[in-house]
Design goal:
InterPro entries (chains A, B): S-Me-THD-like_C (IPR048350), S-Me-THD_C_sf (IPR024071), S-Me-THD_N (IPR010318), S-Me-THD_N_sf (IPR027479)
Oligomer: homodimer
Strand content of chain A: 25-35%
Number of strands of chain A: 17
CATH architecture of the largest domain in chain A: 3-Layer(aba) Sandwich
Number of domains of chain A: 2
Distance between the termini of chain A: 42 Å
Number of helices of chain A: 12
Radius of gyration of chain A: 19 Å
Pfam family, one (chains A, B): S-Me-THD_N
Largest sheet of chain A: 10 strands, mixed
CATH topology of the largest domain in chain A: CV3147-like fold
Structural class of chain A: alpha+beta
Protein name (chains A, B): DUF917 domain-containing protein
CATH class of the largest domain in chain A: Alpha Beta
């Protein structure tokens, strides 16, 4: 299977939904993908099983505050410089590109990067959603040493980090990102296909396409999407309060939705750190990270990203289960509520919404 | 010639004088040098002419705020990790270590790093003094592309930067340094001996030893030092005001000296950014960067570093000419007063002090 330009709108829509508010710049990523496909041709989508064991898979993502990356045009030279550095280090070029993060722009833009490099895209990612920090990837949870990060910025600088662990990779990569103008392209863990097995979440590009297509031509897009995701509807209402600040390369803040229609009188607050992390109603948690919480336009069911939240928007909040990997002890330690500073024991969204 | 542990006190004293207040941690650097010599033996001091043209010279320095590095113990693993990365990139190990900055701890500590790596120390450096920023080195002024920086921190992380120019190398290295706890070991420009010719300041280790020995056994250490340096005495007095703050990896501030004895009634203010940059008396500049300005103890003639300035100290301020390289247009553009934000046209210290 290949990805052509007609697939990009659905892919973008699906990635936005899986982005849980984060991984901004989906529109910019889509334009880059379409432009690259027009110039270099369709991008083959391959599975791990298709690759030789020693083939190099390079997980790529843009790192930065969404309010910045939203405005950024990705240069063609950034993936090329990373590929050059990969070849310099490993003595052979990348065999495939993988999205580190299927949620948001980082799910779409790798199509452009793969096209520019003339390599296939792997049908997998490292999150099955979006997360704000570098070490919050399946490779880390799977216990692969976080021993190599390659970054390339729009100015043309290339930085290679050999961190001692995942937390240092986040700390150093974030510092480089901020110094580079709060946006950079990053390869985190260069993997052989053999090492990638069991350490990446497979099938997520196909999943994003599928989610994106769910609403196409639907008479009730919201219900079609909810059904395809297996999501619970937390509230339908309007945005009455949005508070955001960009600090240290992150967007942090809260958003409050007041119920309308059947939900009149209810009030849901979302805690944000690039992504939607916790949904609270009347002091009770309704869903929490690593489960997925996405704000969608009530009419079109298009995802509304953190940087696009606006007073008065008519929205619905959906929540659904994360990949099983994130519910393991190491998964929760890495990206559970406490990893984000919330003093909460993780409870799966199915249980929280069953009570509601 | 070799450097043995008996040379270290004189080397340290000389480096402190050439440090113009900066490059802190001379005592820590000396202890590290002595310990390393005891463990690994004397360190051969070589000249560029002694090395084959393709021998790799690795200029090393600690980067960070002196108030931090003062407290830091350099680990043995930091130079080893940089040497490993050099070998990984160039396919051969370093042939010699060079001090990037002869002034302060960065002039002494390379003795330890050379001993630990079992390679000679080159009798040269990249400044002939100390400067606060990464791109303020002779290699940059000589027009060598600032295309490689390797950093290694106490935690064990290694970061390789391929910057597009010297200003980016400073910006990215500084960000990594701050993220790594405001201290790291850094190789800036890995040079072949051929490329180093004309791009480094030769003879500066010998010079530092010579300056350090000038006061040994002297009846008037201050006069002996002034004479050896060819320095002007700007003022003798006591420190009445010291203002310092550590910000973004730098120490910035001012120090005021009020004259005593023959200088009673006079008052000199020093502007600091890690190093002493400008000396002002009655609104008139008496000396300015890149010329060297050092505060010394009036009695012992030992240099007083920025982080050791204390109210009431009896000090003398000396100023003398920098290496001719810094007086070229590119040298002044890189490290003249305007490079530090002072709206001053450079006037050599000889002219300024002749007027006085």
């Amino acid at each position: 299977m290949s990805i052509d330009e007609n697939d990009i709108p659905a892919l973008a829509r699906g990635c936005a939904v899986l982005g849980t508010g984060g991984g901004g710049g989906v529109r910019t990523g889509s334009l880059a993908a379409i432009r690259a496909i027009r110039e270099y041709g369709e991008v083959p989508l391959v599975e791990l099983a298709d690759l030789p064991g020693d083939a190099l898979v390079v997980p790529l993502s843009g790192i930065g505050a969404p309010t910045v990356s939203h405005e950024m045009i990705h240069g063609e030279d950034e993936p090329k410089r990373i590929a050059e550095e990969v070849e310099r280090i490993f003595g052979r070029p990348p065999s495939a590109i993988m999205s580190s993060e299927i949620g948001g722009a980082n799910g779409v833009a790798p199509v452009a990067w793969a096209a520019q490099l003339g390599v296939p895209l792997l049908d997998a990612d490292g999150m099955g959603r979006a997360f704000p920090e570098v070490q919050m990837v399946s490779m880390y949870v799977a216990g692969l040493p976080a021993d190599l990060v390659i970054m390339s910025d729009v100015a043309g600088n290339v930085v290679t980090i050999r961190p001692i662990d995942g937390l240092w990779s986040e700390r150093l990569a974030r510092a480089v990102c901020v110094a580079a103008g709060s946006h950079a392209l990053m390869a985190d863990y260069v993997l052989t296909a053999d090492r990638a097995r069991g350490a990446v979440i497979e099938g997520t590009v196909t999943r994003a396409l599928d989610v994106g297509r769910a609403t196409e031509g639907a008479t009730d897009p919201l219900e079609a999407l909810r059904d395809r995701l297996g999501a619970a509807r937390l509230i339908t209402g309007k945005l009455t309060d949005v508070e955001r600040r960009t600090t240290g390369g992150f967007v942090r803040g809260t958003a409050t939705i007041e119920g309308t229609g059947d939900d009149r009188g209810r009030r849901l607050t979302l805690e944000l750190q690039n992504e939607n992390l916790v949904a609270i109603e009347d002091g009770r948690v309704r869903a929490m990270v690593p489960d997925l919480i996405t704000v969608v336009d009530t009419e079109t069911a298009d995802a509304v990203q953190t940087e696009s939240l606006r007073y008065g928007q008519r929205v619905t909040v959906l929540a659904w289960p994360c990949d099983a990997l994130w519910r393991t002890p190491k998964g929760l330690e890495t990206a559970g509520p406490r990893a984000f500073g919330y003093d909460l024991d993780y409870v799966p969204v199915e249980e929280l919404t069953a009570h509601g």
